[in-house]
Amino acid sequence: MRKDNYLSMQAHTPRFLRQGDEIRIVSTARFVEREFINRAVSEIENRGYKVSLGKNLFERENQFAGTDEQRLQDLNDALADQNVRAILAARGGYGTARILRGFDGKSFNNDPKWICGYSDITALHNHIYNAYQTQSLHSSMPIDFHKNSKEVMDSFFDLLEGKKCSYEAKPHALNRDGNGEGPMIGGNLSILYSLLGSSAQISGAGKILFIEDLDEYLYHVDRMMVALKRAGILKNLGGLVVGGMNDMNDNKVPFGKTAEEIIAEHVSGYTYPVVFNFPSGHIQRNLPWIHGKKRRLTVRNGKPSLLQ
After folding, report:
1. Residue 269 CA neighbour count, 13 Å, CB half
2. pLDDT tens profile 205-260
3. CB count, 10 Å around CB of 23?
4. What would the pLDDT profile of 69-110 be if each residue is shown by its tens digit?
5. Residue 228, CB half-sphere, CA atoms under 13 Å: how many?
6. 12 by DSSP, 3-state: which?
7. Which domains does the chain possess?
8. Which end of the chain is flanked by fewer CB atoms within 10 Å, N or C?
């Protein structure tokens, strides 16, 4: 069976969490301050779970949470520990793609765990989806827990526990009506762009593609959308879901379009449904969703709904 056809099917689901299970916090990217981890530990324990920390979590190598070897060791230790049922990335930033080559796929295949995070963790989500056909959780991280609402935190634990969630986004002038269905994949646009040409490059055929980004130049957004289009990723989507596109930058000579207008332009030749302002990404209301889980996307009169 061809890989594209296989990946259009439902990915494997790790065992959902039960009260008393252990969640391991590691950092695959930027260094993290202890105060954010302490708050996250309290939140997780108050929800009835055990928490453990990667032994190198508070190491620092320039902007990274330790060397590549130290960050990879923490990740692989968590993958190999049968007591750990979910692995929570402490934060994003940059650095996850640097350690993908050493990911312990044998341990992950033998005992799949929920891998949770967003932003730079997009590299990890798409690596395990492509290589191991396994779902993961696009979600908030300890660096943000202190500012997340009860809705965001409740949804995070609900999905880890196997409870159903369905989300609606507010209507947007650039939304496109239609119906689509398929596994929802993707994440941060800059990271997806960086994965082009690698084994973690996404295949858009039959998928609901999610993208979001923060603090990018508008011409960078255009360049990344051009690249995804030229790679054929945008052609046969089941739908496109756009999360937060915040704090964008422009040059002295304006680009002339917003990030949302740039995205809409590059998918204007297709017919699948398109949703903007979906509540996920680098925004206050960063709701979680299961990466690789099949979903139905409906947009009617500009009003979208996404059934998980």
Report:
1. 6
2. 999 999 999 999 999 999 999 999 999 999 999 999 999 999 999 999 999 999 99
3. 24
4. 999 999 999 999 999 999 999 999 999 999 999 999 999 999
5. 32
6. strand
7. 3-160 (3.40.50.10740), 166-307 (3.50.30.60)
8. N
